[in-house]
Amino acid sequence: MPPPNTPEEGVVTAESPSDQSAPSIAYIPTRHRLYPEPPESPPPRAPTAPPAATTESSRATTPNPSRPPSRPSSAGRTSPVSCAGRSCLLPINYQDLQYETEVDKSLECPICRTPFYLPLTTKPCGHTFCAACLDRALEIQPVCPIDRQPLDASRDLCHTRVVLDQLDRLRVKCPNRGCDHVCSRELLAVHYERYCDYTLVHCPAPECDLRVARVDARAEKGCLHTYTACQYCDKSIMVAGLEEHYDADCGGHTAKCAHCNAIVIRHRMEKHIAKDCLRTVVACKWRPFGCFEWAPREEVEKHEQGHCVYQAIGRLVRDRMDDRMMINELKDRLSTVDERLRKAEKEKRRSHAAPFVPDLDLNDSPRAAPSYNSGAWGSPEDYMLAQFERMESKMEDLRKMIMELDGHHSMRLLNDTMRLNEQIAELGSKVGVLGMHTTWLMNVQRQSRGQQRAGAAGSPPGSGMVGSSASAASGGSSVGGRSVADSDRSRYYSANDGGVPLRRNSHDRGENPPRL
Amino acid sequence: MASQKRIAKELGDCTTSPPTGMSIALANDSDVHKWHVTLDGPPDSVYAGGKFGIIVTLPAEYPFKAPVVTFATRIYHPNITNDNLGNICLGLLKPENWKPASRLLSVLEAVRALLIEPQPDDPLEGRIADEYRRERKEFEKNAKSYVTRYAKGPVKFDAPPAAAAPANAP
């Protein structure tokens, strides 16, 4: 469904200048709305940049090699502003990542030819690109980079969940130099930002604004961006870049191995002798099981592979040890599971009494995880980090639970109060009705008494006096007050035609009592 | 940065499985932006037997801008300028037709296809195009004579600028 003004192939040539300039201007305001700013800066391998600058500045300041007078403008820095916390890390360059296995071609961006980072799919034609690549391409011409369909960046792009999931699952190597951590791409950012020892952070020295690996960024080590003379080639090299210098461009850096005559980087000689040199005399690896072979490495290797008679017993013993370790581990796990089971049962019994008991027990966490001593962890730090993560997730669970409870609670409160309010209102109306009944009843009573009185006053003129005197006689002491009240009442009634009793309220409201 | 990675990949693709009759090398090892391609004249065309030098220059904005392909060896062809510059007219490479997703492998294949089948309707050399259309025999003779004159022996990539100086001087 191309828009009506889609130019034909031949027409494009004639219109191209205006075609290119106008839409790209219109496109700029909406550029960075759909996705976060992709990392534009070079990868966090700043050390490659400083050594280049290093040689320059050291040449300029050879007499005083302690520190370059002007800071080399290292390409590794994103911004010169000092910032605090994790936000100041260099961003990961996802296009430079090394993947553990070959990535399927369909997950590669056709523009940068690396696995997608923040993929966006075009709606009209369904092609997928990295956000940054597509952004650049649309900046030049607002058409699909594959089939040249016109694209509007604000409307025609969307995310594809499947692709994102597949990308998240890719196994990727940590981009930091020296780190050999491999994880899924989803978790790389966490590893890089939080845990990797080789992530470049700001130099601990306050006056230095270069970067250094996290493991080296300790106050007691001080600033590693001072120059020192290389012990092999006398070049002036930054302390932080020494290791790299040995590997790469150290002038007098190779030496002959004393055993095998191989040319080896001098700084790596120890490692070579300990691991690689074929002529170094070493012991058979089955030595702990009784073999006394002691020969150059290449012979020992052959011996280990073929002839060593202790190999069989060694393997047997090793297998047994492995088995024993596994048994121990399984025992540990079994006891953990048992304990959990017991706990769960207890919980269940308790939950019969109290219907709502959150499924949560902070105490079980240290035992639920395999303990550090069981050997499942590489180092205490790993163990601590794992614990930390468990705690974090537990906290998250707690938070969720509290929120849930809160919602639950307020809901119940609301429900209860509403019911109470209704009841109160109902009771109020009942009270009102009762009050009206009472007044009506009282009036009826009064009326009937008034009629009696009127009847008595009508037949003998003196009977009123008799009644009053009788009441006075029975009343005893309170004669005066009572007679005054009676005379008052008689005066009151006589004012109303003598016969018809006065009804104060029901007169206005009608004769019947109010209904419920 | 991105372009470096992509160029490295393209170079890997092109060197591991080069297009038919081509060999690819970098002009100098430190710069991946300039490629020297040696193309054997396609056997079933008038250019058979010749060896042609092609210079592929990748702009800094590659792959967002099209690569520039020029012939270092002079060639008698309607779509390639008959001078020392060896500019080439290829629809794929025109700025308005260039697609960032196109691969250099397909560009090189397109160049080779152009030698097998010239496009006289979109010519750079009108005279040769006319000749190609009207007097095919004459064209073939001329093309073959160019091959024997320029495209025999080892390919020289630096020939055009060196030869261009004396040619432009008078």
From TrEMBL, chain A:
* Keyword set includes Lyase: no
**Compositional bias ranges of the Pro residues kind:** 36-50
Please give the residue ranges the record annotates as the region Disordered. 1-81, 343-366, 446-516
Fetch the SMART domains from UniProt. RING
ZnF (TRAF-type) intervals: 245-301
Enumerate the Pfam families for this protein: zf-C3HC4_2 (PF13923), zf-TRAF (PF02176)
Question: Which molecular function GO terms apply here?
Answer: zinc ion binding
Segments forming domain TRAF-type: 245-301
Q: Where is the composition biased (Basic and acidic residues)?
A: 505-516
Q: Which UniProt keywords apply?
A: Metal-binding, Zinc, Zinc-finger
RING-type domain residues = 109-148
Name by which UniProt lists this protein: Uncharacterized protein
Which organism does this sequence originate in? Cercophora newfieldiana
TrEMBL record, chain B:
Organism's domain of life?
Answer: Eukaryota
Q: Which InterPro entries match?
A: UBC (IPR000608), UBQ-conjugating_enzyme/RWD (IPR016135)
List the SUPFAM superfamilies. UBC-like
Q: Which UniProt keywords apply?
A: ATP-binding, Nucleotide-binding, Transferase, Ubl conjugation pathway
Q: What class of enzyme is it?
A: transferase
Ranges that cross the membrane: none
Keyword Nucleotide-binding assigned: yes
UBC core domain segment(s): 2-152
- List GO molecular-function terms, semicolon-separated: ATP binding; ubiquitin conjugating enzyme activity
Q: What are its E.C. numbers?
A: 2.3.2.23
Protein name, per record? E2 ubiquitin-conjugating enzyme
Q: Which species?
A: Cercophora newfieldiana
